[in-house]
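Hi L.,

You mentioned the student needs an example of a multi-chain input paired with its predicted structure. This one should do, with 225 residues in total across all chains.
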Amino acid sequence: AQKITQTQPGMFVQEKEAVTLDCTYDTSDPSYGLFWYKQPSSGEMIFLIYQGSYDQQNATEGRYSLNFQKARKSANLVISASQLGDSAMYFCAMRGFQKLVFGTGTRLLVSP
Amino acid sequence: DSGVTQTPKHLITATGQRVTLRCSPRSGDLSVYWYQQSLDQGLQFLIQYYNGEERAKGNILERFSAQQFPDLHSELNLSSLELGDSALYFCASSATGRDTEAFFGQGTRLTVV
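Structure written out for the whole complex:
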């Protein structure tokens, strides 16, 4: 079975600084996908970034990058140059068999 | 805007009642997923449909059922509602179910009183 662990319930960062949100995973599947989603207070789930297990390079999408360390089974999200609008819950997820398995989330608060 | 449409956005109903949540996937997406997000259980996968057929089942109660219609929209039916069913219910869609992206709707917030 797949499992996602997010050990940081909350993180604080100042505007314009970078922040890393931790995610470790466990799976016996040789092929898998890792996702990060953002959930602002309004409730919607916003897709941020995807990393495939066979991808050679770390995924990047604008200010978001995924620090994928396969041997350590970690897929940390790095947000560069934080903005006030980045304040939200962030969920790491893994695509298991036909479904996404989510971690418990990290609440990020960006201060001016 | 993810392109996935869920209705209604909010729903308040009494215990014992039955409700239907509706989801229209992104244009061209064949796969639809339903998730439940509650404070104590986090995000839980309920069920997946692919092109009208059930593909995978998660922690879905027997009181809950779903279907995907020929036009690919999906409905989640919740019956004999209990207070503990109060949650945010998400629908997500992807092209095939093994994609690099899965897009979520805005969710339906169900409150059972």
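You could point out the following to them. The longest strand of chain B covers residues 42-50. Chain B has a mean pLDDT of 92.

Best wishes,
N.
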